[in-house]
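Severity: low
Component: inverse-folding endpoint
Summary: output formatting inconsistent between runs
Steps to reproduce: submit the following structure tokens with default settings.
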């Protein structure tokens, strides 16, 4: 993705500033945390509902001006809201714990303890299929533990303030800070679980619709809680000032911040956005000091700094020998783009597409030096051996790598291609990844008015146009420099029949010699990629032979 305009950067920073400032309302509004969160999610849900209705009507007006088959960028699949509504329970628990942490301690303590959520996410992620525990997450968790301890340590004989001398003060544990830190850590852990659960839901519901359902679910959860705790002060008599602040919290600091964040992400990569999001505790502590007069202890700032450093470390891309931005595409992404109908979102390629995508995965793993191909004799062929299991930052690639690394025995290249073609929902997950990059969108239609199917029409044709331009330049201009990745894409696309989208049979015959040259160039980056491509061809031949045999047997 591009570096973004000034408006994108301003929107993102403004959103993070609002998110960081939301903790101040726990001090400004003298309500129990349950009532405060109920007010927040109620007004946020109303604002998000209005936003959803207005944007939906705008899409309908836009759709009436489009030809049949064209689509809009923000439409989402009509999916049951039961899961997002159920996740509202978790959202309610997260926000109640966050506000309660601040109420019994300070903004600095609550915000610093909540910042542990990226570490919890990194520790919980291995529970998902195809994910592995990263050593960085373990180290970061230890750093966070030290940071939380420093957050709850306070000087016992001096007043709070930045001017406390670290060498002369006597230190002890503040009971309220300890309780606040525990609630803040629980808030971070619950938010990490919610973030992991939302990872696959956001592409099916859309960010606004998903937030609407979850805030509604949180409101429905908290209504009986507030009612049952009325005798313990859960039900409050709001003053005009408090009610105005709660409306401001729900509409501006929740729904408005959400809108600014989505707007900013349109021009800024997810990796850069993650770095900006890590500034949330900085904004929160600064606003608390400026507006509320809260001056945190030096140990609180040091602990918050350690937690922030650990959170930033696990939020960075795990490893990349070649830095890829949010819009850079892997080989399997590019092949699927070529294979999808732009407006209909259906596959144009043959039934061998899964094998071709599997070959692209193998080539990508070779190029990223995660696997090596070794000759093992005439009968066994070229064997695939995993040399590095570090994450590549791509869900499908990481799943493919995990499948190879956990296999009971090694396989040759042809069997490896077959094995990778059985990666769970290979086409669908690759398409969903392109949805996250803003290139496709996920929706559904009906076949024969009865059967539903997922389709992925194009939202942003720019990346595919750039890819087609690269392919045409490589095929039609023999003097043009061609990199190994482009040659691999051309060769795999030819194997899958996808190249027929760009060139008819007559044109392919005219460029036959050049296509042969590109097949040789596909092994220039590493000789192993040529073996991987040959494995795709061998796998396809085997499948076609088996299909022909079964067809002849049935007749």
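Observed output (run 2 of 3):
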């Amino acid at each position: 993705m591009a570096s973004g305009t000034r408006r994108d950067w301003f929107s993102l920073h403004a959103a993070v500033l609002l998110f960081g400032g939301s903790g101040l309302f726990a001090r400004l509004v003298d309500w129990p945390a349950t009532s405060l969160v109920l007010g927040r999610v109620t007004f946020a849900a109303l604002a998000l509902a209005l936003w959803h209705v207005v944007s939906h009507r705008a899409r309908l007006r836009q759709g009436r001006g489009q030809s049949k088959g064209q689509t809009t960028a923000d439409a989402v699949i009509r999916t049951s809201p039961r899961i997002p509504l159920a996740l509202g329970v978790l959202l309610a628990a997260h926000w109640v714990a966050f506000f309660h942490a601040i109420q019994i301690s300070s903004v600095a303590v609550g915000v610093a303890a909540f910042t542990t959520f990226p570490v919890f996410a990194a520790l919980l992620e291995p529970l998902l299929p195809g994910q592995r525990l990263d050593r960085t997450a373990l180290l970061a968790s230890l750093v966070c533990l030290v940071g939380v301890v420093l957050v709850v340590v306070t000087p016992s004989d001096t007043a709070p303030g930045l001017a406390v001398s670290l060498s002369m003060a006597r230190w002890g544990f503040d009971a309220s800070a300890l309780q606040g830190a525990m609630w803040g850590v629980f808030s971070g852990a619950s938010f990490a679980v919610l973030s992991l659960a939302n990872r696959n839901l956001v592409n099916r519901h859309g960010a606004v619709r998903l937030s609407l359902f979850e805030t509604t679910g949180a409101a429905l959860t908290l209504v009986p809680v507030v009612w049952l705790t009325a005798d313990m002060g859960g039900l409050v008599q709001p003053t005009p000032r408090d009610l105005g602040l709660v409306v401001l919290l729900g509409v501006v600091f929740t729904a408005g911040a959400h809108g600014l964040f989505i707007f900013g992400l349109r021009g800024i990569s997810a990796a850069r956005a993650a770095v900006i999001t890590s500034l949330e505790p900085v904004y929160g502590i600064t606003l608390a000091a400026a507006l509320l007069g809260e001056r945190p202890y030096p140990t609180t700032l040091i602990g918050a700094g350690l937690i922030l450093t650990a959170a930033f470390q696990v939020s960075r891309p795990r490893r990349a020998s070649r830095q890829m931005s949010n819009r850079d595409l892997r080989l399997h992404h590019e092949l699927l783009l070529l294979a999808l109908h732009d407006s209909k979102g259906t596959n144009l390629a043959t039934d061998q597409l899964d094998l071709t995508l599997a070959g692209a995965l193998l080539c990508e793993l070779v190029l990223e030096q995660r696997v090596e191909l070794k000759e093992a004799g005439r009968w066994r062929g070229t064997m695939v051996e995993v040399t590095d299991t570090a994450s590549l930052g791509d869900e499908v690639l990481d799943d493919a790598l995990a499948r190879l690394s956990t296999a009971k025995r090694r396989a040759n290249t042809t069997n490896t291609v077959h094995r990778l073609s059985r990666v769970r929902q290979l086409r669908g997950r690759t398409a969903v990844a392109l949805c996250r990059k803003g290139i496709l969108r996920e929706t559904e239609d009906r076949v024969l008015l009865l059967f539903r199917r997922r389709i992925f029409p194009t939202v942003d044709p720019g990346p595919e146009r750039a890819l087609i331009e690269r392919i045409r330049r490589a095929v039609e201009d023999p003097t043009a420099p061609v990199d190994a990745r482009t040659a691999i894409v051309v060769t795999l696309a030819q194997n899958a029949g996808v190249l027929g989208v760009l060139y008819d049979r007559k044109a392919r015959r005219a460029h036959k010699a050049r296509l042969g040259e590109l097949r040789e160039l596909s092994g220039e980056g590493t000789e192993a990629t040529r073996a991987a491509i040959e494995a795709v061809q061998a796998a396809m031949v085997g499948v076609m032979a088996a299909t022909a045999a079964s067809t002849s047997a049935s007749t």
